[in-house]
């Protein structure tokens, strides 16, 4: 069956690429395309841009990396922004970005299925309301689309408050509470720190090994230092240097129950995507015992948890700092471009392009820096095809006499 069934009332022809997701990646690629004269349509499941930042992050969050590494292409942060902008500053920047490039996503369009139709050579993208058709599909739904909720025995029995960090806002709701934070990545550490600052009593579960690095070394961001050193030295040497300085400035984290992995922080990040923790104060609270380190959880009980070392504890609340995952496998069909975990199979730096007009932006495990590179590559690639295709699109819309409810013609 061909893709262009005129009797289907709810299909919309998109004269340009379809971008799924209006986070930083979707906005960046739309802006780069526009700069190259290519229109695009962003489909976004929520009712705002950057929904991860607006709806799923805690109040005290600041960018983990210095601002120069978190800028989107073609439009810089305001000069008066601090080195590590707050999440509110970052959101206001993204809103200005969308306004500057006149990007108007179609909100409340959750993509349920996207599939390439080999018969007519177009992508069919199905939301709850419409079926969109386009020659290009750009996947920008992010590495953090869904919260990971681990299966822990007994988790349903817990009578206290149980939440994922994606719904945690502030420690004000937990004053004087004993809180079990499960997970010790950046979110687990920062939520534990926030709990401390609100006179809660956090206990942080550390099941695996973890690299903790100071956010800055001698006033310079650790990330900047790593980036600079990597231009001159092999990755393993850079890792050794980072660990040497981390041990000198932070002391041995192993003694605190935070074992370091055998593989260095950058090598581990490249191999597994596991980000080192950039310490913003949690470590000193661990040293003073205000954040207590707990072993892995064996079982959740009605009133708390049993741990792998045989101990038990009572807790008022449990916060799952267990991370996020891509949701691509749930809606992207008919192609083996992605792994089961929803990441491109082709390794960095070539994972941004698939076959038949498929692209991905923001799946490099390199944060917004990776997004910016992907966006520029995609825009360059599509703009080359666009000139040829533009005429066809115009003819197509005219000959099909598309009206507003049938097609979008830019
Ligand atoms: C707490 C936290 C702090 C972080 N700090 C930094 C930092 O300092 N620096 C940095 O570089 N990175 C940071 N990151 C990583 C960060 O997630 C990304 O850099 C950035 O948000 C990625 O943008 P994105 O557009 O790829 O994904 P997202 O921001 O996740 O945006 C994806 C969008 O796609 C939408 N979507 C998902 N599925 C569908 C669907 N089926 N249909 C329609 N729309 C859909 C979502 O609603 C969302 O709006 C942080 C992440 C977290 C969780």
What does it look like?
The protein is of the alpha/beta class. The chain has helices at residues 24-35, 51-55, 87-100, 186-197, 222-230, 235-250, 265-272, 282-287, 328-331, 367-399, and strands at residues 11-14, 18-20, 41-43, 113-117, 122-126, 131-134, 137-139, 146-147, 161-164, 178-182, 201-205, 212-214, 216-217, 220-221, 277-279, 292-294, 297-300, 304-307, 312-314, 317-320, 324-325, 358-360, 407-408. It has two domains: 11-145 and 326-399, FAD/NAD(P)-binding domain, CATH 3.50.50; 148-323, FAD/NAD(P)-binding domain (3-Layer(bba) Sandwich), CATH 3.50.50.60. It is built from ten helices and 23 strands. A five-stranded mixed sheet has the order 4-5-6-1-23, with no helix packed on it. The protein has a five-stranded parallel sheet with strand order 9-20-10-11-16, covered by helices on one side. The chain is globular. Flavin-adenine dinucleotide (FAD) is lined by residues 20-26, 43-46, 50-52, 57, 61, 63-65, 70, 110-111, 140-142, 144-145, 187, 327, 331, 362, 367-368, 371. It catalyses: indole-3-pyruvate + NADPH + O2 + H(+) = (indol-3-yl)acetate + CO2 + NADP(+) + H2O. Belongs to the FMO family.
